[in-house]
């Protein structure tokens, strides 16, 4: 059960309804967003993930951006985000447990894992590998995008935000939450 109830549009204050309307013009109101809507500042911070997603897609591609988020969310054992990214991978026609990765993709996925596990211990070797594939500006965007994914993981995990109904068939078994490849 969620630790904070979701905002309900009908009973929300007018300013919250206005923010809901603004958000829903570009995004569906997921359980996460309905929870974040308690705070305009939190809602705006969380929505910055979409800005960075659009920023990294030109140099990563959508598939690798999703794989990066999947690696972060899996490492953080965030049930909601891991399930969402798993859904995206499966809907894209791949098995999240059997992902074919080239050298560039493997470096990005490993970077996501290391960033989530301990950002103070991202190896110099891995960072050198990233520099083979990305510019300094792209790395800055990638780090920020990853950090915002971690924020989403923390938000959903700490508040125990429930899975959205459309994710139910992609639900991760509890024992998978601690399993790592």
What is the CATH class designation?
Mainly Alpha
Could you state the oligomeric state of the chains shown? single chain
Taking pLDDT < 50 over at least 5 consecutive residues as the criterion, the unreliable ranges are: none
What is the chain-wise order of helices and strands? HHHHHHHH
| Structural class by SSE content | mainly alpha
* SS strand fraction: under 5%
CATH superfamily: AhpD-like
Biggest sheet, open or closed, and with what strands and sense?
Answer: none
CATH architecture: Up-down Bundle
Give your account of this protein's structure.
The chain has 181 residues and is an all-alpha fold. It has a single domain, classed as AhpD-like. Helices cover 62% and strands 0% of the residues. It has helices at 14-24, 31-36, 40-60, 62-75, 79-91, 103-117, 124-133, 136-158. Helix 3 (40-60) packs across helix 8 (136-158) and helix 4 (62-75) runs parallel beside helix 6. The radius of gyration is 17 Å and the shape is globular.
Secondary structure: elements and pairs:
Layout lengths: L13 H11 L6 H6 L3 H21 L1 H14 L3 H13 L11 H15 L6 H10 L2 H23 L23
Helix pairs in contact: 3-4, 3-8, 4-5, 4-6, 4-8, 6-7
């Amino acid at each position: 059960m969620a630790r904070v109830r979701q905002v309900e549009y009908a009973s929300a204050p007018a300013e919250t309804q206005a923010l809901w309307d603004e958000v829903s013009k570009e995004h569906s109101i997921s359980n996460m967003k309905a929870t974040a809507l308690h705070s305009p500042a939190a809602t705006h911070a969380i929505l910055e993930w979409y800005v960075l997603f659009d920023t990294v897609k030109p140099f990563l591609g959508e598939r690798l951006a999703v794989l990066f988020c999947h690696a972060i969310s899996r490492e953080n054992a965030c049930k909601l985000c891991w399930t969402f990214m798993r859904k995206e991978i499966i809907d894209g026609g791949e098995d999240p447990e059997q992902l074919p990765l080239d050298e560039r993709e493997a470096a990005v996925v490993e970077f996501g894992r290391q960033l989530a596990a301990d950002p103070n211990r991202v190896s110099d070797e891995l960072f050198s590998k990233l520099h083979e594939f990305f510019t300094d500006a792209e790395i800055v965007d990638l780090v920020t995008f990853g950090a915002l994914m971690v924020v989403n993981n923390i938000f959903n995990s700490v508040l125990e935000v429930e899975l959205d109904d459309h994710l139910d068939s992609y639900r991760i078994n509890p024992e998978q939450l601690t399993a790592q490849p």
